[in-house]
Amino acid sequence: MRDGKTTPPEANNPSNPTAAGAGVPSSLPAAVCRWLEMWNTTAESQQSETARKRREQIMDAAESIIAHHGIARLSLKRIEKLAGMSRGQLLYYFPNKEAILLAVYERMIRRMIQERLAAEDLPRPFTGQAWQCLHRGLEEHLGLGREPLESKQELFSLLYNFLAQMAHREDYRQRLSAMYRSWREHIAADIASSVPAPHAVDPVILASIIQALIHGLTMQLMIDPEAFHRPAMLQACLQMLAPWYGPAAATCPAKTPSSPSPSEGKS
């Protein structure tokens, strides 16, 4: 999808050699496999097995430091010590600490997507279930799904770290721009293939609205976990978006949000 045009996904063909790549389950629809491959950096897709293992070792060390000590305590010295490598070896695979951070972030995203798609009881994109995917996606981002939102603290901390540095890091801006564009294209193509035409709202525009909604609500909850009553917010979002999904929304209708009782709290 480019210039406001939604490119329909190809037929689901797990055997398509262009669809599956390293670490991507071949049983997934071809369009989903291509989307997952987008999250692999060019360096990762062209490296030898030894180099891939070394990079994974470095990222494992960095991720462990972030999880136990926070991003502020991450340093090349700590990484090389935990990874058991010299500074020269470290810089051979990554030019600087920022490159390691970006690789860790992309790997976190890729794992999260793969885990979600591997779940048998969750709706899959490009299978005519765009509304169900939206419903479950909002649940996950509001912390109402399988894992609490707080379990993704490190992931969001990394994202906000990159966003804060975009003004003077063009490489960060370009990479995040590509990530967000890919996410929007994925949503738009899924909507276009699931919601019968004519569309009340252009799928490209609707994808941007959904992305902004998810991003904004997630940021609010990371700042203030009690910013709003989450189940009520979920239903309000679904009610707002349902008319734009047409008959597809009728398969999983939104309930009328009810005001939380004092005992329910906001989470």
UniProtKB/TrEMBL annotation:
<feature type="DNA-binding region" description="H-T-H motif">
    <location>
        <begin position="75"/>
        <end position="94"/>
    </location>
</feature>
<dbReference type="InterPro" id="IPR001647">
    <property type="entry name" value="HTH_TetR"/>
</dbReference>
<feature type="region of interest" description="Disordered">
    <location>
        <begin position="1"/>
        <end position="25"/>
    </location>
</feature>
<dbReference type="GO" id="GO:0003700">
    <property type="term" value="F:DNA-binding transcription factor activity"/>
</dbReference>
<dbReference type="InterPro" id="IPR036271">
    <property type="entry name" value="Tet_transcr_reg_TetR-rel_C_sf"/>
</dbReference>
<dbReference type="InterPro" id="IPR039538">
    <property type="entry name" value="BetI_C"/>
</dbReference>
<protein>
    <submittedName>
        <fullName>TetR/AcrR family transcriptional regulator</fullName>
    </submittedName>
</protein>
<keyword id="KW-0238">DNA-binding</keyword>
<dbReference type="InterPro" id="IPR050109">
    <property type="entry name" value="HTH-type_TetR-like_transc_reg"/>
</dbReference>
<keyword id="KW-0678">Repressor</keyword>
<feature type="compositionally biased region" description="Polar residues">
    <location>
        <begin position="9"/>
        <end position="18"/>
    </location>
</feature>
<dbReference type="Pfam" id="PF13977">
    <property type="entry name" value="TetR_C_6"/>
</dbReference>
<dbReference type="GO" id="GO:0000976">
    <property type="term" value="F:transcription cis-regulatory region binding"/>
</dbReference>
<feature type="domain" description="HTH tetR-type">
    <location>
        <begin position="52"/>
        <end position="112"/>
    </location>
</feature>
<keyword id="KW-0805">Transcription regulation</keyword>
<dbReference type="Pfam" id="PF00440">
    <property type="entry name" value="TetR_N"/>
</dbReference>
<dbReference type="InterPro" id="IPR009057">
    <property type="entry name" value="Homeodomain-like_sf"/>
</dbReference>
<keyword id="KW-0804">Transcription</keyword>
